[in-house]
Structures are given as C-alpha cells and as structure tokens.
Design goal:
The complex is a heterodimer of chains A (383) and B (289).
Chain A: E1 10-13, H1 17-26, E2 30-37, E3 40-46, E4 56-61, E5 64-69, H2 86-89, E6 93-100, E7 106-108, E8 116-121, H3 123-137, H4 144-152, E9 154-158, H5 169-172, E10 184-189, E11 196-201, H6 204-211, H7 221-236, H8 246-251, H9 258-265, H10 271-275, E12 282-288, E13 294-301, E14 311-312, E15 315-316, H11 321-340, H12 350-353, H13 361-382
Parallel strand pairs in A: 2-8, 8-9, 9-10
Antiparallel strand pairs in A: 1-11, 2-3, 4-5, 6-7, 6-13, 10-11, 12-13, 14-15
Helix pairs in contact in A: 9-11
Chain B: E1 23-32, E2 37-44, E3 50-52, E4 57-62, E5 66-71, E6 77-79, E7 82-87, H1 91-97, E8 104-111, E9 124-130, H2 138-146, E10 154-160, H3 169-176, E11 181-187, E12 197-198, H4 202-208, E13 215-220, H5 223-235, E14 243-246, E15 262-263, E16 266-267, H6 268-271, E17 274-276, H7 277-284
Parallel strand pairs in B: 9-10, 9-13, 10-11, 11-12, 13-14
Antiparallel strand pairs in B: 1-2, 1-8, 2-7, 3-6, 4-5, 4-8, 14-17, 15-16
Classes of the chains: A alpha+beta (383), B alpha/beta (289).
The structure holds flavin-adenine dinucleotide, iron/sulfur cluster (2 copies) and FE2/S2 (inorganic) cluster (FES).
Flavin-adenine dinucleotide sits between chains B (57, 66, 68-71, 85-87, 89-94, 132, 135-136, 248-251, 273) and A (311-313).
Chain lengths: 383, 289
Amino acid sequence: MELRPRSFAGQLKADQLNSLIDALLDQGYRVIAPVKRDAAITLAEIRTSESLPQGWGDEQQPGSFRLTDRGDTEYFGFAVGAGSFKQYLFPSRRKLLDIDRHDMSMTKVEDTEKPLAFLGARACDLDAIAIQDRVFMGSDFVDPFYAKRRNECIIIAVNCHRPSSTCFCTDAGKGPECRSGFDVALTEVGVDDDHRFLVETGSEKGTALVNNLDLEATTEADDAARQEIIDRAVAAMQPALPDTDIPALLKAATESPRWESIAERCLNCANCTLSCPTCFCSGIEDVTDLDGTHAERWQTWSSCFTMDHSYIHGGSIRRIGASRYRQWLTHKMSFWVDQFGMSGCTGCGRCVTWCPVGIDIREELRGFAGDALEATTNEEATA
Amino acid sequence: MLDTSLSPLPPVVHGAGDPMLPVKTRIVDRKQETADTFTIELEFENGSEFTFAPGQFNMLYTFGTGEVPISISGTPGTSKNIVHTIRDVGVVTSALSGLNVGDKVGLRGPFGTYWPIESCKGKDIVIAAGGIGLAPIRPVIRHVMENRDDYGRFIILYGARTPEDILYPEELGQYKSNLDVEVWVTVDRADRSWRGHVGVITTMITGAGFEPEKVAAFVCGPEIMMHFVIMNMNRLGVTNDQIYVSMERNMQCAIGRCGHCQWGTEFVCKDGPVYRFDKVEHLFNIRQL
Ligand SMILES: Cc1cc2nc3c(=O)[nH]c(=O)nc-3n(C[C@H](O)[C@H](O)[C@H](O)COP(=O)(O)OP(=O)(O)OC[C@H]3O[C@@H](n4cnc5c(N)ncnc54)[C@H](O)[C@@H]3O)c2cc1C
Ligand code: SF4
Ligand code: SF4
Ligand code: FES
C-alpha cells in the first residue's frame, strides 16, 4: 500500500489516555468501550482507561472465542468482541409508548440517556454504523430515537493491527484502516519503547475534543509507524470471499440444495443475527398491567431465524430452516445492495465466531461459487 | 395525482411527526358482514380528514393487544370516514371485532403503493378477488363505478368459500344490475339455496371472454389463488405487465424499518403491497422467500 502523508492532530502518550476519557466525561458523554468480562471481550460503560482490556488478546475461530494474556501494556490489541455499538444506538429492547386505557392517550417514551462516546470503534464498526444510518435515517421515515443518539454521539476509532482469523473486512468492508465515519481516530504505536497514540480528527466535533488535550507534535517517522500498523493488519487477513459477483451469485442460487446442507448444521439459534452489527429487524410487543388499565408497546430485536418473523395468519412463510438461512445470507450479501445501495456485511466476523456450530459464511459463499463454476464447466463440456 | 410508476405516495405522518405513533380514532359505525367478517368506520378524534389511494393500508391498534395491517376499503380520496373490512382470524382482529361504536382504535397510515386507477383509464378493468381479498380492492370498484365513462368494460370475478361468506352481497348485486358491468361470483362449496357458480375462480376467467390487449387486471387473494388466476389470464393473452397483485406479509412497522415484510429485495409495506406482476414474477415463483 502506498504511503499517504498524514496530518496528525498530534500524539497522546499512552499514560495520558485518561485525559481523553476525562475530557469526554467532562463534556457529559457516557463512554462505551471494550472491556474484559467473563472469558470474552465485550462493550461496557467505562470511566477510566484501567477498565480497558490492557494486555489481552483474542483468538477467534469459527465457533470459538478465546482470550489470550499477552501480558504487555497494549490497550487495543484484539479484534472485535461479541457485542457491537449497535446495542447502544438501536437497543435490543426499548419501550416506545405508554398507553392509558381510559381515553387511550399515548405517551411517547423520550430518550433520557446522556450522549454516547464510542471509544475503540474499529473500521468494521464504522462501516456498520454507516450501514445502519442508511437503514434508520436514510428514508422518508427517520427513526427519531436512533437519529437523536446518532447525532449526539462521538466516535473515537482505533486502527486495527491484530485482526483475528474470522476477520475479513479487507474483502467485505472498507477496513482495516479507519478512513471515514469517525470524529477522532487513534493508532496505537510503540508499545514496547515509546507507547503512544497517533491522533487524527475526522470532524469538527473531534477537533474540538482534541483541542482540549495536551497533544505533543508528531514526527515525520510517525506516518510510517501508522502505515506499518495498517499493513500488518492487511497482511494478517487471508482472502476470504470468492472473487465473483456475490449478489448475483446468491440470486442465482435460491433453489440450490446447498441451503439444505447448511440447514442441517444450523441450530436456528439466531446468534448470527443478534451479534451482527448491521441486522436491523425488530418486532413490537404489546403488554398490559394486571388490572388492564395501562398498556405498553415495546420494540425488541427480532431475527429471521425464528418462525414468528414471517408469520401470517395460516402459518409462517419461511417454514423450513433452509429458507430461513437463505434469507439471512441472501439478505446480508445480496438483497441489501438492492435495498440500500450497499452490502449488509462489513466482514467483522462476529457471526462466524459466535455461531455455536461454527458455520462460516466465507466458506459457504466459496461453496456457492464453486457450485456455480462447476455448473458452467459442465455446461461448456456438454455444449 | 396517481402516476403510472406505482412509486410510493409521499409519506403522510399523522402521529405528531413520528410514524410509529398511532393516532386516536373513534368507531362511528360497525356492521357485521358475514359470520367472521365485519366493517368498521373510523373518524379521527381531532376531526382531521384522511386521504388515501385504493390499495393502501393502515396499521390498526387495539388497546393492549397489538397492531395489524388492514387495507382501506372505502371510496378513495379524501373524507372524514375511514372504512375497514376485517376478518376475525386471531388475537388482534378478534379484539377489533369486539369493539363497538364509540370505542377507540389507534391508527397509523396510510401506507404503501396503490392500484393504478388513473393510468388505467380507457382500459377494460378485470378484478379477480378471493375471500377477504375483495376488501382491499373495493376502492377500485367504487372508483370505477363513480367514473364509469373513464373505463371500458368492467368485469368483477369473485370467489368465496360458501354463499354465507360472500362479502358485500348487496353492493355486488347493485353493480350487477348495471348492464355494462359483469359480476361473476363463485363459491367453493354451495348449499341448497345457491344457484350460481361452484368451483374455483379460475374457471370463470375463460367464461369472461375479454379482449386481452385492452385489459388491466387487479388481483387480490391468497397467493395460490393469484397464481392460478394469473396463469389463466396469461393463457388468454393478458401479459404480466397488465396484471397487478397485492401481497401480504407480516408487518410490524409499515415504514420499511422492522424487516418483517421482506420478500426478497422488497419491503412489501413500502415497495408494495400492490405490484405490477412482471416486476415481481421472479420472486413470486420462489418458495418460502
Ligand atoms: C397489506 C395488508 C393488508 C391487509 N388487509 C386486510 C384487510 O383488509 N382485511 C383483513 O381482514 N385482513 C387484512 N390483512 C390481513 C391481516 O393483517 C391479518 O389477518 C392480521 O394481521 C391477523 O392478525 P391477528 O392478530 O388477528 O392474527 P394472529 O394469527 O393472532 O396473528 C398474530 C400476529 O401475527 C401477525 N400476522 C398474522 N397474520 C398476518 C397477516 N395475514 N398479515 C400480516 N401480519 C399478520 C400480526 O402481527 C398479528 O398480530 C392484510 C394484511 C396485509 C399485510
Ligand atoms: S454478516 Fe457476519 S461478518 Fe458480516 S457484518 Fe454481520 S456479523 Fe459481521
Ligand atoms: S432479515 Fe435476517 S439477516 Fe436481514 S436484517 Fe433481519 S435478521 Fe438480519
Ligand atoms: S413492515 Fe416493517 S419493514 Fe415492512
């Protein structure tokens, strides 16, 4: 990759990371960042850099996530965990309305959360947020809840340099380099000798934030240091997706027997849709209190892996597992492009890691591509 | 107002700027149509008027039970009254069925695409409806009847399960008394009193004898019924770009956000429910999509 000259806002010494977090807290943000919890990395609210999983790494495989204790001082030396920032902009469960039986008056539940700061978002997270922006704010019907949180939030991204084996953002998304969609982007360098963060800004909000910090000037060598991080991440990722028009490949494969063979392994647990940072399906739940004077409407995440998802009077549309798996993969990789002008997959690998039986969408896509190639070869042979 | 492209109408949001906020209406009239089907007329509590195009639907909310998509069955245009004909099949429709004049219903809408009655002016209009499928298409019938000079031949084909299940029998009878309207009704199962057609609706299509190139066909009913109607229409020379269908999927939001109504590339709530058939034929034939 060609070296692009950077204009860094400056550098922040690693032991000064708390000054960034403090600045966010001072400005009234709730800071959400990766933390180590149980045997995994997840997202949570933090107030200090000590809550970050410093020194920890991860080993991810289809169907498995394992923490590794590297024992160094690196703050962001891992790939993405199970949770994504989606759960903060589009919570898994949220009350929409309170309704009174007496005159059926409806009260909207207003969002009283403080503005959010996302610390440690990766390129795939930025991609996912851009994709959900399109879903929730890109049509005539803007989701006011999402839009409020999204417009108020500030994103402090981090360039990846230790992708896991399940990552494929170079193929599916725009990663691993954070190029757009952040307010501030950090590159963690010099862990062993001169541990610091190279700071870039991507918006006025980001510039205003870092202007409050005591940043030191960067040197010319820092361009190369940053590039080395990116290059290392790129080199660590194997080509994963078949080199073909995937949206067309899947549209042509709707009747393929391969869906059946995947469905035989699939548990219909919906882990993939729940861990996927771009899945946006939701349902409405209606509840009433015991004496029936008060009702509520709740929005909850839903998944196309359940029978409910496509239920209409008389039965579900997608009755067999194969049709539900087909919906998930074809929606992500093909229909999404028709609907939103972009793919629904960022290559974050969460659905691969968190699938209890290790179904790997990269491998399945290669399978479909192989089938298609075989079919054309056979046609040519008989022609 | 309506163009030929079936592009969605500009969104109308009655709910104080939030399309997910139902607006209060009051039932001003209720009529039991058949054993399990009833019609309610709603009016906004704040007295606002309501405008819709034929084929569009509303989301109706009943206190504590839920919200369901229901087509608007009145005369298209603007008025104070909002008419819905509903078949009681489950939790929410049964709750709606239990409501009386004066009771409140939450309403969001209107949503979705519409039957292109304006661009079909001058055409021979063929309507094929099955069961409750007559309700979403009644606005077209009323429009054509009120603007009879704008259209050529007018043929209504309707299939119900039994004679007791025939929807709007008086209204159909009135139309039939017009010499230039053909109304064909069939039932799956007859009783002693029935002296009309027995059998599936498709058997009447050959009997209708229309000039294929002049036809615009509006089809609404169960998918299997639509499949056979279209097959027969095709056989008679009506092409798929002359046929419009209305699709049904699970709907939670009606604004293209909840994902439940997805049908391949389509969000049926906003890209549909009414489609020109040639545009979706490739999806229609895929099972369990
Ligand atoms: C665009 C459109 C227009 C419709 N117009 C009419 C109409 O004019 N008259 C009429 O009687 N019916 C109409 N329906 C069907 C009507 O929406 C269902 O009969 C109704 O949702 C059943 O809900 P329930 O709670 O009574 O049934 P249950 O079987 O108890 O269903 C539980 C839930 O599943 C979902 N669901 C079930 N069936 C359907 C369905 N067919 N379509 C969408 N979601 C469903 C709903 O969320 C419902 O609350 C229409 C459906 C659509 C999509
Ligand atoms: S489909 Fe899988 S890899 Fe792609 S964005 Fe979703 S979870 Fe990540
Ligand atoms: S349909 Fe399935 S794959 Fe698509 S957004 Fe919904 S849950 Fe995700
Ligand atoms: S009903 Fe929610 S997306 Fe169509």
